[in-house]
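== Sequence entry ==
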Amino acid sequence: MSEYYDDRYRENKNYWGKQPSSMARIFFQRFPPTEGQALIEIGSGQGRDSIFFAQNGCLVTSFDFSMEGVKKAIARASELNLSIDFFQADINEYRLKKPYDVVFASGALHYIPQNLRVEIISNYKQFTVPGGIHAFMVPVDKSFIPKNPQDDPLEQQRGNSG
């Protein structure tokens, strides 16, 4: 899957655009960040939401599966003179190691296979400060993404048996 996004990010300077996602804007309206609030974005693509949160005072850590996306995010943050800790990681392998006030994911959690969901979400909960927030959005069908295993009854049976 990273090759798909690597190709899109190479072909298009701003594949997702520069403006924050509607999810980030809605979250910001409902939960305005406090200065210095630690936020991690999971599956940040080219960093549009991470940049938005950093511009509004958050201390942002951000990762994506696509190295091309991470490179573009780093370049754009640098152009804007923002300090954001961007790095490349696979959502299915990377585990949080320090606490955050906000764990944010707009369109990434559907990449977690059913057999890893409890472990990964438990890790996110473990590294969310008391009173912290999880803001997650999972997208609907996209023709370029392989069929979601949770939609397959046979995969459901396999995932529930282990």
Remarks:
- The two ends are 25 Å apart (CA to CA).
